[in-house]
Amino acid sequence: MSNEVIVNETLSLLRNHRSVRQFTDTQVTDEQLNTIISTAQRASTSSNVQAYSVIAITEPELKGKLAALAGNQAYVEQCSVFLVWCADLHRLKQVTAPHLGDKPSYEDSMENFIVATIDVALAAQNAAIAAESLGLGIVYIGGIRNHIAEVSELLGLPELVYPVFGMCVGYPDQENDLKPRLPIEAVLHKNGYNKEQSIEQVKSYDVTTKQYMIERTEGKKDTPWSQVMANRLALPHRLHMKEFLESKGFMKK
């Protein structure tokens, strides 16, 4: 399989994505924010349901509370604007009710939960690239799900809305090396899933990631990717999510 790739300006932007966790004091303008979100809205959406909402947090005190709930991640408080990306079926339920009459509604089905979660993820990635094209940096924050009920209450999220992740946006105050990704042969399968190929490629990736960690930490860490993943899977992680989502009206059908 050839590893040759095409290069152009758009592809270079996409291929040079880095997570940014240090930001300058320069603020994101309303024009920039509107551009980012309107670009996010052009992402693909299942059946045009557009089942997501975005809450832009700029108030320092509120950012501080969210930073604490997200695991005391200082960059949530430091960034210019913190975006909370929410899967949103509440709006759909409310605006369709007058048209349905006595007909049953399935907004709380597992399928619609999946649709909403995918919709918000696609929109957020559009936003990330839009922000980077404007010279801004971003980092996704899954930590808002650490205390998801408290985050939801703090932001006044109604039934059938849940915060999927946050996103710090601001002007970068750091330079990062590109973190190596899995070899393309590990993720690209042709005409069927190749189990042996996928697993075999991790061996070379472990060598690459071990060397990357040695260089990045000046020899303090040398843990390969598969060991990092094993450590992650060995810990119970946000096991409250199922109960919370059901309490918010998701996945009843």
Overview of the molecule:
The structure is a single chain. The chain has helices at 9-15, 30-40, 60-69, 74-78, 90-100, 110-133, 148-155, 184-187, 195-216, 225-233, 241-247; strands at 52-57, 81-88, 137-141, 161-170. With 253 residues, it is of the alpha+beta class. Helix 2 (30-40) packs across helix 6. It is globular.
- Helix and strand sequence: HHEHHEHHEHEHHHH
Low-pLDDT segments: none
The pLDDT mean sits at 96
Q: Number of helix segments?
A: 11
Characterize the largest beta sheet: strand count, sense, and whether it forms a barrel: 4 strands, antiparallel
| Biggest β-sheet: strands ordered side by side in the sheet | 1-2-4-3
Task: Tell me what portion of residues adopts beta-strand conformation.
Answer: 5-15%
Number of strands: 4
Q: Give the overall silhouette.
A: globular
User: End-to-end distance, in Å?
Assistant: 44 Å
Structure class: alpha+beta
Q: How much helical structure, as a percent, in the residues? A: 40-55%
Radius of gyration: 20 Å
Domain Nitroreductase: 14-171
InterPro entries: Flavin_OxRdtase_Frp (IPR016446), Nitroreductase (IPR029479), Nitroreductase-like (IPR000415)
Pfam family, one: Nitroreductase
Protein name: FMN reductase (NADPH)
What are the SSEs and their pairings?
Layout: H1 9-15, H2 30-40, E1 52-57, H3 60-69, H4 74-78, E2 81-88, H5 90-100, H6 110-133, E3 137-141, H7 148-155, E4 161-170, H8 184-187, H9 195-216, H10 225-233, H11 241-247
Helix pairs in contact: 2-6
